[in-house]
């Protein structure tokens, strides 16, 4: 659904450009007071100073919204989540509180594999209903585009089911959040293949990936490249096959140990490498050279009590950094945009301006969409966040609290507060 909408008297706060902002450019935010943004049929057709009198009743074909005292930002892009799954893992969180590690729980058959069992036991309606609930919460926090991954099926039928759920939600005429789908068949080794990881990679490449591609169910392929999960060699084999089949590439890289996944992302010119808690200096520079977006997920580091990724150093090295939530039932059961921004500013030493770029234009670039979303410019989608303040510093300052007044999706205004 699209609309004609004129937002006037706004303080527009936006990065500028149709590609990722790298290094120092991330700080450059355009701030425009007493601004008007016009959206026609869901697409931005004017951004500039407030205009005068109506010409020939032209404005009567538009909804009008007075944004006096409010900031207007591009809609947030949450470019890394796992929001379609069955069950939950609250008990694991308590085990971790008592000192057990994420990987040791996974090694004794819990973790991802336990969500796989719950997802295999769920049907389309159950998965869709639960995922729809998460989408509503995302919209309330200003998200207008989200990436979602499969990876809780680990068999052909359930991987395709997860992706079909995302397609169905994305086809909803009244959706408030666009969905970009990623195939993550290599998220863990399922019980049937324990001790035979190479055979599982073969199965994914031969049986599942072609079906994903033929049915156009995903744009990206991702892999959990981690010690004890998929090695650098196995990840390379999988991602090379994915690229040959036309999928763009992402990696869960250097999340738990420094394995070199960020370097592999640079070698393969992946669109993004994500997590990067333990990425080496050399690999950070390689990512900057190759234009791989560094997607940082501070909520996961927070929930796992791990050290934060070196966001400041990555930006100083010239990387394009994106921020995302990683919403999933295990390592990070949170999709909180306000807390993500606060952690990025407080612990990863990013400025508010850099965090805004990271959650908008660079998030869009991490999804190959910087040409159509991520900034408030003519020709892009009319997707916005309206803050209930004219001071965008509230985003980290109002720690973990929501200062979103309304979300606009392709010109349709959805009030929040
Ligand atoms: O990004 N590390 C791998 N995947 C997710 C966690 C998934 C889960 O625990 O269910 C992550 O942290
Ligand atoms: Fe993840």
UniProtKB/TrEMBL annotation:
Binding annotation for N-formimidoyl-L-glutamate: 152, 328, 330
Catalytic activity: 4-imidazolone-5-propanoate + H2O = N-formimidoyl-L-glutamate
Domain Amidohydrolase-related per the UniProt entry, residue ranges: 72-411
Coiled coil residues, start to end: none
Pathway involvement of the protein, from the record: Amino-acid degradation; L-histidine degradation into L-glutamate; N-formimidoyl-L-glutamate from L-histidine: step 3/3
Binding site for Fe(3+): 80, 82, 252, 326
Annotated positions binding Zn(2+): 80, 82, 252, 326
Chief subcellular location: cytoplasm
Family: Belongs to the metallo-dependent hydrolases superfamily. HutI family.
Protein name per Swiss-Prot or TrEMBL: Imidazolonepropionase
The organism of origin for this protein: Bacteroides eggerthii
Gene responsible for this protein: hutI
